[in-house]
Amino acid sequence: MSHLFDKKIVEAFGETLAAVAKESLPAAVEDVLATPGLTDHLARTVEREVQRFAETELGVPPILRFTDEFAFFDDYLRLAYESTGMSQKWCSRWWAHRSVRFRIRSMWLAYESLARRDPATCDEVFLRTIGDHHMPLLTGERSPMVACTSGHQPGKPLKSDPIEEGTL
């Protein structure tokens, strides 16, 4: 029913709307075209849409900000979360701790996803919702690296017995 009313309203106002648009539209378009940085914004939008199309429709791998979790750690994460002293548990061989590497890889993949969706806010959203959650777990009293105070101490994975037949 709503569609019927919409159609009738457009018919009733169509001539007037066309006249107003003919008069007002050129000035409105001119104002938008005069916006500082509009060309750069449009170019970025086109680039994002082409990349999104290439990824979703053609299967082209996404362009990443960081090549892997190691580059992400070296060029982003370690700068965002500086050492705060003795109470912070960290091992310079963090990559040798499987659980730490697993979390940092997860953080990197989440960051890349955020960066593609919304480049303007990805840093703030990542730090607030992902980094600020994981980093206290990686550097706090229960850190997998807690034993590495004087040097690297390998961690041990959680124990797991084989699943007994018929359990599932």
Molecular structure report:
It is built from five helices and no strands. It is mainly alpha-helical. The protein folds into two domains: 57 residues, no CATH class; 71 residues.
In short:
The chain has helices at residues 2-33, 38-58, 69-80, 98-117, 122-139. The chain has 168 residues and is mainly α. The protein is elongated and about 80 Å long.
Number of domains: 2
Beta-strand percentage range: under 5%
Q: Please state the average pLDDT score.
A: 88
Q: What does the largest sheet look like?
A: none
Query: Helicity, in percent?
Result: 55-70%
List the helices and strands and how they pair.
Blueprint: H1 2-33, H2 38-58, H3 69-80, H4 98-117, H5 122-139
Which terms summarize this structure?
single chain, 168 residues, 61% helix
